[in-house]
Amino acid sequence: MSGRASARVVFPELPKRVFDIVYADPPWDYKGQLQHAGPGSGDSGGAVRHYPTVTLDDLKTLPVADIAAENCLLFLWATNPHLDQAIDLGKAWGFGWATVAFVWDKQKTNPGFYTLSQCELCLVFRRGRIPQPRGARNIRQLVSAERGPHSEKPAEVRQRIEAMFPAQSKIELFSRDRAPGWTAWGLEARCVPMTGGGSR
After folding, report:
1. Per-residue pLDDT tens digits for 52-72
2. pLDDT, tens only, 1-21
3. Is residue 81, in this structure, part of any structural domain at all?
């Protein structure tokens, strides 16, 4: 399914439990903008070609605070044009800004208005204190992994989070697959646009 989601969005119900680690890759709204590789190249894709995108206002309505433990970390992917929105979203979900957790070097470039785009950021936010017990304390910030299918993030990031927090309960929001040890939410549906008087 492709195309922008409507102004009213119904998200699948979140689990009835809390988690120590929340990992999310929101379907950011680009207002239908497509990528272009230069004059005469035609469009080379864009989020809207692959899944329903969701506005910041709608993303803020997802009750992530309800599934966050008293001491919880949120790892949140932010495309570069949405960096300010990502910080707003983390706060709206009940977390305080912490730092940049990971910088993903995609090893390939995308066209950009200013410089060629090659990196994407995974931010980290905190609610309460850092969950205990801690695991590995020597995890590197830079992840160099070749870009795969559109929007897919390197599994290595999830694995690094696991190494940092091996004993904690974890959920992946807007998930594409089920990883061992994680609760998956989304599974490509991402969100359900309202149609008529109901949802599907």
Report:
1. 679 999 999 999 999 999 999
2. 334 444 567 789 999 999 999
3. yes
The DSSP output letter for 162 is H
Domain range for 185: 9-193
| H or E element at residue 59 | helix 56-60
Residue 63 near residue 18 (C-beta atoms within 8 A): no
Evaluate whether residue 148 is within a structural domain: yes
Task: Kindly report the CATH number assigned to the domain that includes residue 38.
Answer: 3.40.50.150
pTM of the model: 0.82
Place of tokens 């599974």: 187
User: Does residue 3 lie in a domain region?
Assistant: no
Whether 125 maps to a domain, the answer reads yes
Strand positions, DSSP E, 136-186: 142-144, 170-173, 183-185
Contacts by 174-179 with C-beta closer than 8 Å and gap 24+? 174/24, 174/25, 174/26, 174/27, 176/152, 179/155
Between CA 123 and CA 76 the distance in angstroms is 5
| Residues of the chain predicted below pLDDT 50 | 1-6, 32-51, 189-200
Tally of domains in the chain: 1
The C-alpha atoms of residue 85 and residue 71 are separated, in whole angstroms, by 23
